[in-house]
Amino acid sequence: MAYCSFCNNEVLKGTGEIYVLKDGTALNFCSSKCKRNSQKLKREGRLMKWTSKTLVLSSDKKAPEKKESALAKDIEAKLKAQKEAKK
Ligand SMILES: [Zn+2]
Fold it and tell me: What CATH class does 1-43 carry?
């Protein structure tokens, strides 16, 4: 059973899309919504409210979610630093 690369939901057999990057890594998407958010809108799945909600509901634990949000902030800061370095 594959899991969505963006929202971490299960991708049922015969549904969803597989998107293969130039370097050969395969990304599974459960819906066109997840594909658009990831590829066209270039969003991070773990930063979206509507994806973290499903994670909280499935795990019933709030502590790891807080850790993840702290991690997400670190990643955001690093991405900003990289963008500034490019300019
Ligand atoms: Zn998804």
Answer: mainly beta
Instruction: Output the pTM of the full model.
Output: 0.56
CA of 55 to the centre of ligand 1 (A): 12
pLDDT bracket for residue 63 (50, 70, 90): very low
Please tell me the distance between residue 53's alpha carbon and the centre of ligand 1 in angstroms. Answer: 13
Domain spans in the chain, listed from the N-terminal domain onward: 1-43, 44-87
SS (H, E, C) 22-80: CCCCEEEECCHHHHHHHHHCCCCHHHCHHHHHHHHHHHCCCHHHHHHHHHHHHHHHHHH
Weakest-pLDDT range from 4-8, 48-52, 60-64 = 60-64
